[in-house]
Amino acid sequence: MKQLQKHLIIILVMGIMLAAALIGGISTFTFREISSNDNRAIMKSIQQTDMEELNDTLRVTAQTVNALTASYADIVPDDLSLLKDPEFLSAYEDKTENLGYHLLSENFKIASLYYRLSPELTNNPQAGYTVARSADGISVLKLTPVNLHKFDEDDMNHVGWYYVPVSRKEPTWLPPYYNTMMGGQCISYVRPIYKGDTLISIVGADIDFDEFCKRINNMTAYESGFAVLFGPRGDLLFDGNRSVHIPQETIDKIMDPARDSLSTSYTDHQNRVFVESSQIKNGIRLAILVPEAELNYKQDVMTYTIFLLTAAISAILILTMTSILRRIFKMSHTDTLTGAGNSSSYIERITEIGDKINEGTAIFSVMVFDVNNLKHVNDTQGHAAGDHLIRNGYQLLTEEFPRSEIYRIGGDEFVIIMENKLSDLCGEMIRGFRQRMRDHSESYRELPGQVVLAAGMASYVPGTDNSYMDVFQRADEKMYKNKSEFYDHHPEMERRGISPEETRWY
């Protein structure tokens, strides 16, 4: 106990020294940080960088659609009635589809491209094409165009990408919606093509909103800041499953159409949160949220330093005491001679198994082992040699049954509990072990120091066995039957003259 107290004192002194070093390091770091740039300016810079990444995807998407629109506008026939000719329409679709297929193959930021002709001009509600990137994101697939007459014009998921821009008669960014053809959430940019007042077609592109959100989810600021996305109407489109609660008043400020960007803050559960928001090209808003305390930590640096010092010392003490307790626990549950589990750990284990038997969930086998000829070794060579023989027996068991629960429950008796393993497998293991012991037994006279263990095994049988000891008794009986075979083969060895119950420690 005195040695343990000495160790505790040394550890506490080392903890205090470590805490003092920690204070010095924190102080140095703090003063260096005080002279750094303004945190909010840094945060705004982070937000602008993140927003530009998203805008780049939107910009490329819009440029692709605009390029296709210009190309297709040039090839619209002067005589629009030609589009009702199936042969002419088929050739026209092939020509337009080849260009879209080529552009999508080279642009990995876009999930799909489509060119749909007005059903009124073609008498064909599926006129046009749709090409989409495959699930692996590498190849491009040609899809069957949606039948525009099959769905109502206000069916956003199926045909909203067509009728919304047509009704507005202008290029349109559609906020995230579920696109049934793509089988997921999309952001779409669509441009209608007119010849005079006559609608010819629409050209559109989809962005995979899930991929869009992955980029947003990877955006960080300081230690705990993150990004969220608002729709054009102020609805929260993405928060990374963080269950963010932003007051409506703050959302209204963020969505103010008179402002392209905004710096503000709000209170969430008595914690101030700083917000830096900007409008993205398609009308949705990106906002970076950071706890204001994290931005303004310099103002409370001394308080934080004291807190960190206390926390650090407490952590060191907790870790130290935990380690000591674990060591004490291990020592109290380990046999000092062999390193196997001792009787205390064995009793705890069979109590756990007893609970499982009562619950009806027990699946286990018990193997019982006993070192042969220990009494003869003790009598002829001394107890030191007997202890060595017991240690060799345990070592043999660890080699034969690695990673198994091995307990020393008596002077020379060991138990292995095999839980959640098939009875046939355990039986095969014990038969193999007995055969190796027979081989050892054959050479015992030539190698008298060689350890030989008797072994028995039994498995729990629901409905037959009422307790762990029922299983143990069967295994014990088989072990003593195996031991008798050894002494029958070696009559010169003296059998032990006491019952096994007298040597067990439980």
TrEMBL record:
GO terms for molecular function: diguanylate cyclase activity. CDD domains: GGDEF, PDC1_MCP_like. The chain crosses the membrane at residues 7-31, 301-325. It holds the Pfam family GGDEF. Residues 362-496 form the GGDEF domain. Keywords: Membrane, Transmembrane, Transmembrane helix. This is GGDEF domain-containing protein. The lineage of its organism: Bacteria, Bacillati, Bacillota, Negativicutes, Veillonellales.
